[in-house]
Design a protein that fits this description.
Blueprint (H helix, E strand, L loop, with lengths): L4 H17 L12 H24 L6 H11 L9
Helix pairs in contact: 1-2
């Protein structure tokens, strides 16, 4: 499944949070093993790198609709308002 830059960013945050809290991603009520936590951190790094790549590629774009998901992620109170 293709993901947008903001989706990669959010997934990285989820994975880091799970690793730090020791939660299993698929079974939140179970404790994650050390191996699971290491995998989560590795996957988080991949998602963070992909989010950074997406943001870097957008550096020169002027198409506002491409920036909306980033704005909405960084400012959840924006609710997609354009003004």
């Amino acid at each position: 499944m293709a993901m947008t830059g903001p989706e990669h960013y959010r997934r990285a945050e989820e994975l880091v949070k799970a690793a730090l809290n020791g939660d299993q991603i698929d079974h939140p009520r179970r404790a994650a093993s050390e191996e699971d936590r290491a995998r989560y951190l590795t996957a988080a790094q991949v998602h963070a790198t992909l989010a950074q790549t997406a943001a870097t590629l957008m550096k020169n774009t002027t198409r506002g609709e491409l920036w909306e998901p980033w704005r909405d992620m960084l400012d959840p109170t924006s609710n997609g308002d354009k003004g």
